[in-house]
Amino acid sequence: MDELLTYDQVAELLKVKKTTVKNWASLGKIPKTGIRGRFSRKAIEAWIEMQHVPSAIEIMKENLRNFKRK
Length: 70
What we know:
Residues 4-51 form the Helix-turn-helix domain. This protein is mainly alpha-helical and 70 residues long. It has one domain (4-69). Helices cover 60% and strands 6% of the residues. The chain has 4 helices and 2 strands; from the N terminus they run βααβαα. Helix 1 crosses helix 2 (18-27). The longest helix has 14 residues, at 56-69.
């Protein structure tokens, strides 16, 4: 069975404040279970993986490729 996490545990995992986790949950920005104040570890970890933000180097490379095409 999937481990259920509390607001505090999710906040620690995401390195944000507990209030941020509560806000994100109420806005539907992070996956939550039907159980109030509980989150699926697997769902949160999958969500983290989907939040990839390109590095400055990746952005610069993409911009350079686009610039060369023009």
